[in-house]
Hints:
alpha/beta; UDP-N-acetylmuramoyl-L-alanine:D-glutamate ligase; eight-stranded mixed sheet; four-stranded mixed sheet
Amino acid sequence: xxxxxxxxxxxxxxxxxxxxxxxxxxxxxxxxxxxxxxxxxxxxxxxxxxxxxxxxxxxxxxxxxxxxxxxxxxxxxxxxxxxxxxxxxxxxxxxxxxxxxxxxxxxxxxxxxxxxxxxxxxxxxxxxxxxxxxxxxxxxxxxxxxxxxxxxxxxxxxxxxxxxxxxxxxxxxxxxxxxxxxxxxxxxxxxxxxxxxxxxxxxxxxxxxxxxxxxxxxxxxxxxxxxxxxxxxxxxxxxxxxxxxxxxxxxxxxxxxxxxxxxxxxxxxxxxxxxxxxxxxxxxxxxxxxxxxxxxxxxxxxxxxxxxxxxxx
Length: 313
């Protein structure tokens, strides 16, 4: 495991660490009835997934999150640590249930509904972050998901400004994106999907041209690198100097959960290692493709070589 230290150079990720329960119906959906299908249970959470992806790419990374003092919480910590993440700053909350995410897809791969229960992350408040300010002082970048409380966001922005940090945001959902819109100018990198981009920019995204407009709007709102992901259509990106579209790689879709998180992580890896924006986004698209083919929320075989191999196909 690559542990973060006061010597610096690590990426600090703050966000949810969950148990993911994912169901897929085999045939035509019968509403109000039990549907034959497949159920998978694994560990997830947007922040946790991003952290593990970075760890598997060899980046020193620390995670700040919260888990319950239960079997699931201990499993989340064990499996995240095994992915190369420093989990010493994940808060273990006695008497609390670990966060959970539930999603169901139909036979065509369309998500019918999803439910998240991440109230435990309220324990990662502004004071908890401020008490770990040394982690911020030497971080190369701080990455957050949309689940942070207003208190936590306040400390994040104060510490980010104090240490001149690059902040990255995965909005996580359209519901959570709404309250993040006023803070966009504080972020170096923002990676919404089409629904989240509509909330953040006011642009309805149904086409490549609209996705490009949304990415450029993010930049006009103060973001340095805006990336709008479009699932099987790839993604559009923009900075103040360049913009472009990277098509998705052809992939068998085994499980869509975590693909966007992998894209965010690989883009961050690329930017931190002085790849051009275009090259970094291509790494992100490759990471998303690998994750789509995997039943886990993070591909256990993720590596820089695996990304290169995917791009060469």
